[in-house]
Amino acid sequence: MWLQERLGAFVFAVDHPGLAKCAGAHRPGLPCDGTRGKHPCGRWSRDSTARPAVIRAALSRGLRNLGIDCGKSGLLVVDEDRPGAFESYAARAGQVVPLTFMVTTGKGRHVYFRQPPGGPLGNGTGALSGWDMDVRGNGGFVVGPSSVHQTGVLYTPVDAAAPVMSAPDWLVGALVTPPASASGHPGLRLHGSPDARLRGLVATVLDAQVGERNNRLHWASCRAAEMIAAGQLDQATAIDALARAGAAAGLAPGEVQATIASALRRAAS
Question: Domains of the chain: which residue ranges?
Fold first, then answer.
């Protein structure tokens, strides 16, 4: 399949908006929220594969979109919620979005990059927060090319022959920059005892709004990792506190674990 040949993608089956009922694997008591064409048909982080025979078997069950596991695929994808959002941010930063593999979506584009060296980035948006963009990396997925958006728009490559470029340094730097809303959080303590600072980081995650939860968790985990490296904080205690905060903020367990692990790896690199 060309997604494996071109992108090295690990994929899995996703609901298709042409079906009468959502094919997503929803948790008991949590039915489909009405959004179609994006819900995985199983545990995507477990089911994602690059084996063509397994993929064909999954697609043989009826209409399906395809999701791409960004972590296994080594991808970092900027997901625009409006056309031109990424270029607007880049221009403000005095940069230019490099030519790389891109896909038009129902709202804007998916801009694909290879993960930078030194440990994969997660789903945190960093300095891109507030610019109508999401980021999908380790612990996240995107709906792949040739899938159908619930509006009927086909996810279409801008140039199917374009290579997937490495994430530019300016983008990596922006993604690991703390979001302004987190660094200015009134409950955050960057000084004081390690326990007090950890409580401040937990409060920052708990106070996160939808759209910034993963970003705050990643930022808080990076700060905790710095204290762990300095011998000021027990790693197990920090992970437990941040994992509980991420879950209480509404993040899925897999996303919480991947985000914290990503921050710890970056601190160790």
Answer: 2-175, 180-268
